[in-house]
Amino acid sequence: MTPTTIPHHARAHDPGPLSARPEHSAESPLSIHALTVAYQRKPVVWDVDYDAPRNALIAIVGPNGAGKSTVIKACLGLVPAATGRVEFWGSPYRKVRARIGYVPQRESVDWDFPVSARDVVAMGRYGRIGWCRPVGASHKRVALECLDRVGLADYANRQISQLSGGQQQRVFLARALAQEADLYFMDEPFAGVDAATERAIVDVLRELRAAGRTVIVVHHDLQTVPEYFDHVLMLNMRVVAHGPVAEVFTRDNLVKTYGGRLTLLAEAAEALARAADTSAT
Amino acid sequence: MHSAQSITDVALHWPTLDELVRTLTLRAGYNAAVVVVGTTMLGLAAGVVGTFALLRRRALMGDALAHAALPGVAIAFLIAVTLGMAGKSLAVLLPGAAITGVLGVLAVQFIVRNTRLTEDTAIGAVLSVFFGAGVVLLSVVQASPAGDQAGLATFIYGQTAAMTVADATLMGAVALVAALAAALLFKEFALVCFDDAFARVQGRPVNVIDLLMMSLVVLVTVAGLHAVGLILVVALLIIPAAAARFWTESLWRMTVFAGAIGAASGYLGSVTSALMPRMPAGAVIVLASGVIFIISMFLAPSRGVLASAARSARLRLKIARDHMLLAALRLGDDSHGARVTINDLARARGWRVNSARAIAWTLARTGHGELHDGSLTLTATGFDAARRVARTRALWEEYLTRCADVAPSHVDYSADLIEHVLPPDLVRDLEAALDSAHTAEEVAA
């Protein structure tokens, strides 16, 4: 492929001067505009511009410390942005938060907390239940259905510390499903999970895509990117490239993102070849 | 009552049975009854509020708050006396205590947010500086013309016996507020304690909810200051909640249990102290909760120390039995009915002969084997069990070689241990996955 044939959105990212950037579309479920985030004087995300396509499974990849989780947290208002603007369907976050679901990193909570799997999933409904009101029967039913969708219906009453790591991850996924959102953010849902959980998560992702939803996933496993995702956002403090996996997930861009760590590149190349094989047959 | 005791009379006064019964049933005089009711209410409130403080990891904040309350008490006294009011009234002193207490908490939060110091460091620093300021101010109070410092020093160790009807009513009101808040805001408190980021994403005002929880801690701490003393009041927040955690996996039950344990501690402590007036009630109340905590820690089912020890002993025995079944299967050349000597089994696994004999004995007891003069023969049940263990193990070894890249974090343990730790349902999943892998391989071939 010569550079002239690459569509604009797939080109290695150079946002150019602010005035020259295209207007963000109100159609896009997520528009990030000139986002910079800094912790303790040190910037971790630098001038990120991104428009997420609708109805797609999008992976955010990049080396450790590239700011993948930080971008998500800044979008959700969990860490303050130094500069920049984030819009969802053309609106600020607080106006559309009912349409946005979130799966935090599993390590972010204490799994010895005295609640059952169903209690945790029901927390996904709290945005719809008023203050001082108990969780009603209909919400409890939705929580059970969501547990069933991740294959944990039998574990509803289990205390969460008695679940395996993969099952805990699925409980978090079920909680996000209970939010019944249109756009989902998932922070490393595949990290350290067993094969059964990985399959369950992939199934849910595909279900969500079939239902017209958009899912943005922080992902660490380059090998599975072509298989699981449609789009990819390659990040290393700044945006290196973004676009459809087939066009953007190239050796060139991987070198730019990961700085040429050969084992990773070899793995990714292997995965790409495998994906090409399956699409050929 | 017992005020006639002289200073040289150091012997404890042991109560009679009659006194005991009358105190326990609140009939040992009006004052004693007021104290018992008041401390019971205080314990109830502290248990309920402490549950959320503990789960939000803010329990020690109560300690900072209590210590930071001391300068407030002294300042409130000085201001009241200057204005010509009755300085020693609780209505004057407690608001002062609350104000500097909250300042202490804010100081801790300021340090944590704006420096790289951790919360425990910040709490330690703030707590001691405020307490030091309080002690200095108490000496100022003592030197002042109106100063009768003895009245204020009771805030350090508490003076339960001096509790008035108004105090007891205050405790009752605090308990009511705590119970109501916990019941009405249960869902919000639980969400913020478990996952505050998720609460934020859903648009819940986490700061407001935190503020409400902290206000309850302030309320209980300040109400408890005069009764239990600022040094020990934090115990009432932490200990009942920590003890309750041992007994249940459900948050609302933990809240109820913590309230009950707190109330029981207050009741038992104040009754004991009414019967033996030489014992300071605040300390006895804390000791009572400590006794309940120790009982909970050791005896609670499932989370208790003894239950955990029994569980891990059972797991070790199961592992040993599985190993012996496998060894018997191998040494018996995989044929049913083969006799294997205990000595051979011990050698095969590196057991001492006595341990091997004990394990073999448990196998015989459960009908897995028969023992005849120093050798073990697997029964049909035992033979089946051994084959099952061998199958699981083969499954794992295959899983590790084939799928290790899928879940590298699961390869932390030796294969020997994993097969005993995995639940049966996961093993079934694994079998299905591997069987389909086998089938795919055969199709490809």
Keywords summarizing the entry:
heterodimer; A: 281 residues; alpha/beta; six-stranded mixed beta sheet; three-stranded antiparallel beta sheet; 10 helices; disordered N terminus; B: 445 residues; mainly alpha; 19 helices; 2% strand
What does this molecule look like?
The complex is a heterodimer of chains A (281) and B (445). Chain A contains 10 helices and 9 strands. Helices cover 34% and strands 21% of the residues of chain A. In chain A, helix 4 (137-149) crosses helix 5, helix 5 packs parallel to helix 6 and helix 9 (251-258) packs antiparallel against helix 10. In chain A, strand 6, helix 6 and strand 7 (214-218) form a beta-alpha-beta unit. Chain A has 281 residues and is α/β, with parallel strands linked by helices. By secondary structure, chain B is an all-alpha fold. Chain B has helices spanning 17-24, 30-55, 59-82, 90-114, 119-143, 150-157, 165-184, 186-194, 196-201, 206-228, 233-245, 251-275, 281-299, 305-331, 342-349, 353-365, 380-403, 415-421, 424-444; strands at 339-341, 369-372, 375-378. Mean pLDDT of chain B is 85; it is low at 1-7 and 406-417. The chains are: A alpha/beta (281), B mainly alpha (445).
